[in-house]
Structure formats: C-alpha cells, structure tokens
Amino acid sequence: MTLSYIAEILKSDFKGVDIEITGINTLKDANSHEISFVSNSKYVKDIENSKAAAIILSESLVEHLPKACLPLVVDNSYLSMAILSKYFAPPIEDDSLPKALIGEGSKISPKAEIANGAKIGKNCTILSHVYIGANAIIGDNTIIYPSVTIYRDCKIGSDCIIHANTAIGSDGFGFATNSLGQHTKIYQNGNVVIEDDVEIGSNVSVDRAVFGTTLIKKGVRIDNLVQIGHNCEIGEYSVFVAQSGSAGSTKLGRNVVVGGQAAFAGHLEIAPFSTFAARSGVTHNIKESGKTFSGFPLMDHKQWLKLQVKIARLLK
Amino acid sequence: MTLSYIAEILKSDFKGVDIEITGINTLKDANSHEISFVSNSKYVKDIENSKAAAIILSESLVEHLPKACLPLVVDNSYLSMAILSKYFAPPIEDDSLPKALIGEGSKISPKAEIANGAKIGKNCTILSHVYIGANAIIGDNTIIYPSVTIYRDCKIGSDCIIHANTAIGSDGFGFATNSLGQHTKIYQNGNVVIEDDVEIGSNVSVDRAVFGTTLIKKGVRIDNLVQIGHNCEIGEYSVFVAQSGSAGSTKLGRNVVVGGQAAFAGHLEIAPFSTFAARSGVTHNIKESGKTFSGFPLMDHKQWLKLQVKIARLLK
Amino acid sequence: MTLSYIAEILKSDFKGVDIEITGINTLKDANSHEISFVSNSKYVKDIENSKAAAIILSESLVEHLPKACLPLVVDNSYLSMAILSKYFAPPIEDDSLPKALIGEGSKISPKAEIANGAKIGKNCTILSHVYIGANAIIGDNTIIYPSVTIYRDCKIGSDCIIHANTAIGSDGFGFATNSLGQHTKIYQNGNVVIEDDVEIGSNVSVDRAVFGTTLIKKGVRIDNLVQIGHNCEIGEYSVFVAQSGSAGSTKLGRNVVVGGQAAFAGHLEIAPFSTFAARSGVTHNIKESGKTFSGFPLMDHKQWLKLQVKIARLLK
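^ Those are the sequences you sent over. The predicted structure of the assembly is below.
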C-alpha cells in the first residue's frame, strides 16, 4: 500500500516521496518500509530514533521527526492507527496459497482442517477437529489434541503437546475508543511463536501480537484455562498453573513459576527464577531474580505470611 | 401443553378453564398463555400484578392471585418449576425444520455444521468445526472462528467477530435442590442475543437465559476466558477483560469497563461508565455512573489505594 | 515391560526374578505387577507396607523395602519415574481396537469422531465436532454438545450433559524438574470417571489422573470455565460455580458448594456439606461438615464479614 493512499485513508496531508508501505509497527521496531504512530509526548525520544518511513502523530509532535521520516498528521493518532490496521490484515484463509505440506510419518485426522500455506513437520499427530491456519508452521513430533485452533501465521515448535480446545493466535484485545465511547478494532497482524518442547493444557488462550510476536520459549509448561495476552514473552521453562494469566506485553525471564489464578498486569518485566504464589496479582516489575511473592498488592511471600497474622489479630 | 396436563405433571389439583400453555416465565414477564411460579412471599406484589395464566405456588400464597390467574398448588414451587421446565425444552436439533439459509457471499467451511432452521446473513465467514444450532440467526459480515458453538435459537448481529472455541448459548447454571441434596435441572429455554459490532474472544462462555434473553448489546468487547451468566444484560460498548465474569441476571449500563479476573455477583444493576479494576468483586448495585472501583469487598478505587497503604503499615 | 528392561531404562542395577510390569502406581496402590517410587523419607511407612513388585528410590531408603519388593536405586527417583512414565503411555488412538459400539437409539453426528474401542450407550446425543477417544465409555441418555473432547479411557455415566468445548481427560499438570530447571513430562496414564446424572458446563477442563482415576461422583453440577485437577475426587451433588477450580488430588465430600472463582490447593480433604463463598482460597483440610467459609486465607464466613468491618475501620 502506498504512503499516499494511507494519507488518503487517514485524511491527512501528504508531501514527499511516495513509497510502498508493508506494515505498521512500533516506533522502536518499524523499519524504513513501515509506518508507526505515537499518541503520547513521553515517547519523543523514540520518535527521534525511529527508522519508520512515516509516523502518524499530532501536529505538536512533528518537530521531533527525524529527517528521513514523513509526518502523517491527524487529530487522534491511536484511532487513526486502528482504522489503518484493518488495511494490513491478511485474509483469514487464502486459496491462492499452495496446498499444505505434511511431513513424513505425520498422522493427520481427516476431520482436521489444514489450511493452504501451512507446513507440518515429521511424525506429528494432529487429531480430529483441529484447525491449522494459513501459513502456520508446526515442527516435528508435535501432538495437537482435538478442537485446538492454531490461527494463521503462528509457529509451533518440535516436541510440543497442545491439549484439547486451546486457541493459539486469537486476536489480542486491542481497540481505540472515540469520544462517544465507541470502539474501533486494532487488527492484530502479528503472530504467536511457540518454541520446542512446550506443553500447553486444555482451554488455553494465547493471543497473537498486534505487531511482531507473542513468544513462548523453549520448555514452557502451561496448565489449563490460562490467558497469555498479546506480545507477551514467556521465558524458557517457565510454568503457568491453571487459571492464571498475563495481560499484554509482559516479559517473563526463564523458570518463572506462576501459581494458580495468579495474574500479571501488562507491560511488565519479571526477573528469571521468580515464583508467584497462587492468586498473586503482579502490577510492577520484578528486578531481582529468585524471589517468591504473594498477594495483591504483591509483596514478598514471607511479608505476606506475616501480614496475614497481623490481619487475623484485628479480630481479637 | 394444556394446563390440565401441567397440573397432572405437578400432581396439583386443577379447576378452571383448560387452555394451551406455551411456556414458563417470571411473574413480571409471563403473558396470558404462560405459567409462572413463586417461591418467596416477598414477591406478593408481583403475584398480584402477574398476567400469567397460572402460577405454581404454595397454599399460603393463593390468596394473592389475581382473578384471571389459576393456582397450581405444590409443596416446593421451585422444584416443581424445575420438573416442568423439561417439558418445554425444544429438541436440540430438529430435522423437520427447513434447511439452513445462507446469505449471498457467505463462505461456510464444509467442516462447519449449520443445523436446520438456521439463517446466516451475507458475506459471513464461518470457519471449520463451527456449530450453528437450530433456528440460530447470524447477521451480515460476521466472522466466526473455528470450533465456536452457537446453540439453538441464539442470535448474533452483523459485523461481529467470535474467536475460536467460544460457546454462545450453553445452559445457564440452574437447578432446584431437594431436601436430600439432590439437584433437578432447570431447563434453560431462553436464548442469547448478541447485537451488532460485538467482538468476543476465545474460550468464552455466554450462557442462554432460563426464560427470555441473555443480551450483549452493540459494540461490546469481551476478551478471552470470560463467563457471562444467564439473563445478564451487557450495555453498549462495555468491555470485559480476560478471565472476568458475571453471575446471572446482572445488568450493566453502557461503557462499563471490567478489569481482568473481576467478577459480579448475580442480580445486580451497574450504572453506565463504571470502571472496575482488575480482580474487583462486585456484590452490590452501583447507582452513580462514571466512578472507578477496586477490591473485594468493593470500594472506591482511591479508598482502596489508601487502604493498601494502611494495611502495609500493619507490618511495621 | 520386564523389570530388567525398566532397570536398563533407569540405568539402575537389577538383581532378582525378572517379571512383567504392567504399570506405575503410588506406594499405597501399586499391586505386585506394578512398580512404585518414593522421593521423600517421610513415606517410610508406605514403603514398608507397599505391595509393589519394585520401588524406584535412593540408596538410603533401600533398608525399608519389604522382602518381596525389589529396589531400583537411582539418584533422582521422581525424575526417573517421569522418564519411565512415557514407556507406559498407551497410543492416543489404536487402529487395532475394534470399531466403536453405538447403543440403540443414540444419535451420533457424522461430524463427530468416535475412536476405535469406544462404547456409547443407548439414546445418547453426540453432536458435531465431538471427539470420543479410544476405549472411552459413555452411558445411556447422555448429551454431549459440540466440540467436547473426551480423551481415551475416560468413562461418562448415564443421564449426563456435557456442554460445548469442554475437555474431559486432558493430561494432569505433572513434570519433574532437573537441576538445570528443565522439565520432564510425567505421562498421565490414569483416566477420568464421571458418574451418572452429572452436568458439566462449557469450556471446562477435567484432567485425567497420573495413576488411577479423577472421579466426579453422581449428581455433581459444574459450571463454565472450571478447572478440576488430576486425581481429584468430587463428592456426590457437589457444585462448582463458574471459574472456580481445584488443584490435584483434593477430595471433596458430598454436597460441597464452591463459589465463583474459588479455588482449592492440592491434596486436601474437604468435609461434606461445606460451603465456600465466591473467591475463597482453600489451603487446608476441612474436617467439620456443614460450615461456610470465605476469604483467602480462608476463614469462617462470619469471621470474614467481621474482619471486613475491622479492615474498613482502618480507613477512619
């Protein structure tokens, strides 16, 4: 899509060299064929360093643009980005893609659906009512139980097990809300990548990234009914117990243990080898590794135990 | 089913004009061809104003019946209603219904199942392993991802998106328990109506109403793994973040925001533009609109923040 | 599999009479054709009383073995058991099993998949996209809604209802972690047994036992999005409200009521007729029956109400 056409969609002025734009991305990650957006003046530094071809922004931020970057001036940059995201959404399925490739020794139920463009490795077991979307890639020896849905463009590693009725790559929860309280969907054009040796329970939701990738690293174990928000990054060998979850863009180090019904707010960074007791509510970064936490608000686990004793005393 | 036959089922005496009864409903909503029930003397006023053809009740409440309304006297009216509800349950599928109607431009996977009596609008995308039940109606341009189940009689609007493995119209959680602790199912003979421009995440459960309708209004956004109980009404543009839920019969105004893992007790009324922080537990009505709440027990969000500071001081 | 071959897998010495081993089991439940394991010296008594053919253990515990029981000495008995568990895992499907048996009057959707070895009783309704695994057994009059997955070897009673997208028999959450933080799967070679007259909501996960059975007794009612961990035992007529759950091996008596989002830690025993308010967090046994609890940490419900008043006073 050309930059001039994008300007037309956004009803923004356009001056400069017209080029082909391949997608939308963050200020930090956009390359010279992508556009970005900024809705908050606290990201001025990121504007100045951005390699994006153009940035959707308000008039007041134009002065911070690098030379090679064109402005797309709008009133509400977040809403404009949402409107534009739809134009970059690929079709859910695409008949023009080549027929799926199935590796040697893989057993695919005739009642599974493997969309065009998908690739399945060797010795996999794909059971009935599984859906593997367009361009999805599955490694070797992976077992996918019935009624699992793998959305398009997602990648599952080798030696993985995914239990029944789990959804990998459903849309992240993103929308822009206008002054009337109406929501415009932000199309989630990223994907999910699950590395090797990961096991995921039943009825789990792992959302695809808005841009880029939701990443589940090697050796992770996820129990049933867990929510992983868009753009999360789950470190190697981390463990999520049942009914726990993470909001979007949170990054866990390796071997983090998340107790049952515990949850993370979005955009956090969690040190490796952290342990969170059941029902912990994590709303700030954890910088020191190897510690154990409890409660909501979160505190050191031993402090939490002490606090419960103090609280019980209130009754006396 | 005739009133005299119903009396026979309930082993209740029957005197009066025998008429055909089309269903069971609440005291307030029952019309002159429906029967109702009452299990609590605090609803005397509703008995007096009811338009029901007959009411299942205990001997002691008969005096409050309006003239046009016949008594069906039983020992345990709630259990009697449960027993009767089964007789009004339609078949899950019905071969005698006409073949499903599919609107122009809609793309239905051959691995989806569209039951007889269903109607699908124009330009919809219905992916593999989707089930659309008897007499269900889907609007135009709606996308239904794999392994979604839409139960019979439910209606989905236009421009909706429903993500993988979500269940719309599963039975509400209702049963009558006898003195031995045994449960009798209350058949959930209502439906779910989802208005236009609603997006629902993956692994969500929206239960059908016991009578009437569970209603999700225009523009609502529901994240993954959310529970919506029977007979809820979710106001326009309201937002449920992942793993939140509502028990039955709760009514939310427009633009209510429900944080992750937050939950509502049943039978509440929540003012529009209310915001509930993650893990709020809401057990009373909210009358004033536009406020923000936290905690369980629920309190004003600022009070909750103050309280956490006070609680932390207990440790010193 | 012979004992000598098992010793070879575990790189353990083997002396004695070689016999055929049929499975792995707990110290208490293993019979004379099974092997067991022990990873903690507090189970010395169970070693002494075990009927297992052989026990995987560390050198230091060998002295406690009964005469008829052979030692399989290893460094890390829990990890060794995990490694061995894979060898006892049956195939997910087995073409050599006889074609499924379907009882008279049962209506099976052509879009359901009934694996070889399964048996379905009379007058059942099995809807589209249901999967019934190898050797699974379904009683009479049972209704299974779309996209339910029943894993192999599980048994569902008569007069049951299982709602859409529920998984019965997915693997329990079990693994052994080595000193590098890497996890080895413990294959869950047990099953799930659901007795008669049980109703289970949509998007529920009931995990299969690691050994033995996860048991849901007669008349139980489970709402949507509930987690039942491996080896749990849920007493007759117990009730789980939406989004509640139990970790593994917890045993509930009859008519226990579990409120919404409440949860149990693992390995607990809960007296019959106990009631847990919404969001209770249960981490210890309940010995006295008929009481009502709230909160996390859990307390008597009336105490919890008092405590909330005291806590509210902190704000003054």
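The radius of gyration of chain B is 22 Å. The interface with chain C takes residues 92-93, 111, 113, 129, 131, 147, 149, 151, 165-167, 170-171, 173, 175, 177, 181-183, 185, 203-205, 207, 225, 227, 229, 243, 245, 247, 261, 263, 265, 281, 296-297, 299, 303, 306-307, 310-311 of chain B (CB under 8 Å).

Shout if you want it in another format.
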